[in-house]
Design a protein that fits this description.
With 326 residues, this protein is α+β, with helices and mostly antiparallel strands. The chain folds into 2 domains: 4-168, Endonuclease, Chain A, CATH 3.30.870.10; 176-325, 2-Layer Sandwich (Endonuclease, Chain A), CATH 3.30.870. It is built from 9 helices and 16 strands. The chain has a 7-stranded mixed β-sheet with strand order 1-9-8-7-2-3-6, with helices on both faces. It has a 7-stranded mixed β-sheet with strand order 10-11-16-15-14-12-13, with helices on both faces. α5 packs parallel to α6.
Length: 326
């Protein structure tokens, strides 16, 4: 099965089908997991899978408790969100699933976060996008790639295990690149100032004649400088479309970089990708969980991305761009 781009609106249906057909195991990793709205259907499918003997393994970042109404609200309804998070964990564990929090030791909101996202149901994989099963994810402009790939499935299962081992040891590991059939798997291991995704994006932009970038935040740091030296089209949210803290980050990036934002639509962008074209017209894409900002690099977030020249994947991203962003 070639990688197929699945939008946030179609994601629930595709994931439910994969979980319902799973016979061996389901692995889930996300920044935010909540049991409300469409996300509740996914949680219910996971509990049912566990009841019928499928090994269900769920890992969520503890920053889940700071999100309400689909956005970051660290000072709003914290007690309520904490109770909801505990109920979610207890529900899954009572069904026989393994549920683990990561990031509970971090004293800071953005430091030590696990921002990678995937769902693996036997050999069906959903990854290389930005979707977490939270309260309002179907309202966001976002996607995941669905593919049948036993090798990639095994890699992500091993990576989820490595994240838990690192979490239990209160440590992180060096970012790395791994060759896969679709291109290069880029994994940020959570060490501050060490992001192979960010480094590869900078390198790719420097070697390109044109860059299309879509991201949640205004790109910052060395990437911003590289973009300004290259013909570019950059789309990100305006600092009026989210919670106050996110708006502040977007506004700060916009002021300090002066990167023109071409996004004129209302739906909130949660997708993150770039397509770089070299002087010969050859295209390379990076797609995944990284927002192409320097803050996460400095603080050491765990991230996942794919760097690829696969024409099918790049065409899917371009179609997504024309349909939802441009």
């Amino acid at each position: 099965m070639s990688p197929k781009l699945v939008t946030s609106q179609a994601y629930t249906h595709r994931v439910l089908k994969a979980i319902q057909h799973a016979k061996k195991h389901v692995y889930v990793l996300a920044l935010i997991i909540q049991q409300t709205d469409d996300a509740s259907e996914i949680i219910t499918a996971l509990t049912r899978a566990s009841h019928r003997g499928v090994g269900v393994n769920v890992v969520a970042d503890f920053s889940t408790v700071t999100y309400a109404n689909g956005h970051l609200n660290p000072y709003y309804g914290y007690v309520k969100q904490l109770g909801a998070a505990r109920d979610l964990a207890n529900r899954l564990r009572s069904a026989g699933a393994r549920f683990s929090w990561v990031g509970t030791r971090s004293p800071f909101l953005f430091a030590g976060r696990t921002h990678s996202k995937w769902i693996v149901a036997d050999s069906t994989v959903f990854c290389f996008g930005g979707i977490s099963p939270h309260e309002l994810f179907t309202d966001d402009i976002d996607y995941m790639f669905e593919q049948h790939d036993p090798v990639l499935a095994s890699m992500l299962i091993n990576e989820q295990t490595s994240i838990l081992h690192a979490e239990n040891a209160d440590t992180a590991y060096v970012s790395r690149a791994v060759s896969i059939s679709q291109g290069t798997l880029l994994i940020d291991g959570g060490i501050p100032f060490d992001s192979i995704i960010y480094r590869q994006a900078v390198k790719l932009i420097h070697s390109s004649s044109h860059v299309l970038m879509v991201t949640q935040y205004c790109p910052t740091g060395v990437i911003a400088k590289a973009l300004k030296d290259t013909d570019n089209l950059v789309y990100y949210n305006e600092p009026t479309t989210s919670d106050p803290l996110t708006n502040m980050l977007i506004h700060a990036g916009k002021i300090t970089t002066s990167i023109q934002n071409l996004y004129k639509k209302k739906p909130y962008i949660h997708a993150k990708f770039l397509i770089a074209t070299d002087e010969n017209g050859h295209k390379t894409a990076i797609t995944g969980s990284h927002n192409f900002i320097s803050y996460g690099v400095t603080l050491g977030t765990r991230e996942l991305a794919l760097m690829t020249k696969d024409p099918t994947i790049i065409k899917s991203l371009e179609t997504f761009y024309r349909s939802y962003i441009a």
